[in-house]
Amino acid sequence: MAQKNLNYGFPTVFGRELYSEFKNFVHPPFLVVTMPDLWPLFGHHFDGADHQVYFTDSIEQGDLDRDAAGLTDIGAVIGLGGGQALDVAKYFAWRRNLPLFQAPTALSVNAVYGQRSGVRVDGKVIYRGWAVPEAVYIDYDVLRSAPRHLNWSGIGDILCFHTGVLDWRYAEDRGKIEEKWRFSDGLAQQSLAKVDQITRHVDDIRTLNDEGIRALIDGLQWGTSYHGAGWCPRHIEGTDHFLFYTLEKLTGKKFLHGQPVGLGVVVGSMLHDAGTETMLDIIAGIGLDVRPEAMGLTWAQLETGLKAMRGYVNQVGLWHSIAHDTDISDAFIRDLKATLDKAYAHRA
Ligand SMILES: [Zn+2]
Fold it and tell me: Which CATH number do you get for residue 169?
């Protein structure tokens, strides 16, 4: 496979006081898609501009189709917020064929560097649409002013490359790989380089200095390689996200994305017996707490989720991973608890 040095990312602008410029260049009248709690913080940047505001409250595809059809006289869309507002902005830009400008106010989940929107149909997540932003605006001071753990959560969507690649190689070695997604070492190495970059910037990401924000963004930009690799997700995610999907299905809880995914990275690393300590050093060192109690889960709920994961991934038909073949034992769960307790013992 000749996939070395795949191009990735969207045009991205780093700077300060970026939002006050929108009214000077975004095609008027424009639509700002945001959340009600964010508008009091950022609305003043749009004073005097010809604009409308849309507050996100649903990501059901039917609701979004209805609201997209109701948009009148809009020249462009600005997404302003975390995951959901950016996904809805993408969706409207796609449905109405409008220029899109993205302004993430936190990096909790990688919604900004993907062409498709995560929307729901009857409560089930599907990825739909196509939107490439004119530019993504990364304002250092805006990100730094958000609650820290929201940005730390973003490492989940980068560290999952570690477990994604492990599962990819695992499936290839066992003859369980999909023919269209045969293992590519070049692509895998590019993913792992993004993980290494996080390893080298633990302190920068914890303090969220400019260098830390740039390291996070570079890792998140690799999310667009899902499309670049021909919609192959193999170098990007595996057991990490599969645990999250299982827990979400089981509990119906709304998680801070990086917590269950980060826990999935730990669980996947343990199953593969590869890099568990390194991953936990990064996660706990940055400050992201992936213990179940930190995300409102009891150990009993997590145990149920871990034991249900094998059945769930097989039933849903997710791409083959170590989770498809492994029954989680009581000993594994005891080991996981001890490993997590140790990693967070001196950080409480
Ligand atoms: Zn994710």
Answer: 1.20.1090.10
202 shares a domain with 116: no
Token pair in block for residue 191 = 């993913």
Write out residues in the chain with pLDDT < 70, as ranges. Answer: 1-4, 347-348
Mean of per-residue pLDDT scores for the chain: 96
**Separation of CA 161 from chain center:** 11
- Would you state the pLDDT for residue 348? 55
What Å distances lie between residue 140 and 77, 103, 147, 153, 169, CA to CA? Answer: 22, 11, 13, 17, 37
2-30 tens-digit pLDDT: 455 788 999 999 999 999 999 999 999 99
| Distance from the alpha carbon of residue 109 to the mean position of ligand 1, in angstroms | 6
* Domain membership of residue 246 as a residue range: 149-344
Domain for residue 203, yes or no? yes
Neighbours of ion ligand 1 (CB under 5 A): 157
Asked whether residue 164 falls in the same domain as residue 300, the answer is yes
CATH number at residue 49: 3.40.50.1970
pLDDT at 1: 43
Q: Sheet of 30-34: strands edge to edge?
A: 12-15, 135-139, 100-104, 76-81, 30-34, 51-55
* Cα 138 to ligand 1 centroid, rounded to whole Å: 19
Whole-model pTM: value is 0.96
